[in-house]
């Protein structure tokens, strides 16, 4: 956020070659992953068709978060994004904590996505060993991230476009199925939405699903990180935020509506909901097709997350919150050391998970599972503080979030509600407490480090 204390600047050392269409697709690529293609069935199992209410609430939250981030990113495009904004609003320890927290989340998810993509592909091509495919995926996408940012952006654009095309095709098939336009296939209609079947587990099911589906929108915040390497960031970020928000809502709400209408809440088909809908439409090879799309979705998200992780740790290094070597750049203006450091953790986690199946990654994912909620909270609080500061000082902002401060407060209220629901649930409580513990450890480490530096000076 631009204030009297921090003028509008773009990170000068990184390139600025990302195009608006690439920025938009990067946001979509990070948010549309296995959580939609594979995990969406979990929300329907918890709440039935009433899961749509959970998606609307969570979708409203992400709209508000994206507006807040867009306002701050347009004013101060920087690779540290919400970490920098939190530092300016709440102090350097808070900013460092948020930055490291997000980095840890992404590098853990990189390993999970590599193994997930390899595992899915092995069901289609069983002759290929999972461990080899996982490491090849990581190596290939590391190479992509070491190229010029414009090349990375173009690669991610087409990666994400494949997923978007698959979802559009799914929505068209689903609509044709519901309207009875497919010859020889009877429309299921909207019988699943009638009576007690709409919310078979009542309010408790909707609340449980809310905590589950909130994570489906994780990844959209990468748009604010990529703003630092985008041409005309003030204009590009505003356009990307508006586009990403409505497309995600249409894709998610539309897909979930079709799945809930076609597949009953207690059906085993919810384990692979997209394939189940395509099977119901009588399309041959549906399971294989959706498996390959899910592989692309995971690899696209891995690619974008490696980018985000490298840029965040680069920013931390620039601010003295990480080893200075991580701020070095190649002649192509790529933070190669930051890329390699970020992927190294993912490779180690991948190897350990292969050596000790179902022991390493579940533990790591449980610890970082609620990280996105903490990041969204920091973004909303930072925007609340920095916008008040900018208005007080009469600073002109290139992009202003409407309905301030009330919409920001609404976002915080929704976020608090999700935290409360998570703490009440027996399954989600350990995840939240683990994330809180991780936040405390990182904050303590950052605070002690700053004290040690101050004592030496």
Topology:
Elements lengths: L19 H12 L2 H4 L2 H8 L3 H25 L5 H10 L1 H33 L5 H16 L3 H30 L23 H13 L7 H5 L6 H30 L10 H8 L5 H33 L17 H20 L4 H9 L2 H23 L12 H19 L4 H28 L1
Helix pairs in contact: 1-8, 1-11, 1-13, 3-9, 4-9, 4-11, 4-16, 4-17, 5-6, 5-16, 6-7, 6-13, 6-14, 6-15, 6-16, 6-18, 7-13, 7-14, 8-11, 8-12, 8-13, 9-17, 11-12, 12-13, 13-14, 16-17, 17-18
Characterization of this structure:
By secondary structure, the chain is mainly alpha-helical. It is built from 18 helices and no strands. It is globular.
Q: What is the 3D form?
A: globular
What is the distance, rounded to the nearest whole angstrom, between the alpha carbons of the first and last residues? 30 Å
Please count the beta strands (DSSP E, at least 2 residues each): 0
Give helix % range: over 70%
What is the typical, i.e. mean, pLDDT? 86
The percent range for strand residues is under 5%
Sheet with the most strands, sense and barrel status: none
Oligomer: single chain
Low-confidence stretches: 1-12
Structural class: mainly alpha
Radius of gyration of CA atoms, rounded to a whole number: 22 Å
Question: What's the tally of helices?
Answer: 18
**What order do the SSEs take from the amino end to the carboxyl end, as H and E?**
HHHHHHHHHHHHHHHHHH
Keywords:
457 residues, mainly alpha, 18 helices, globular
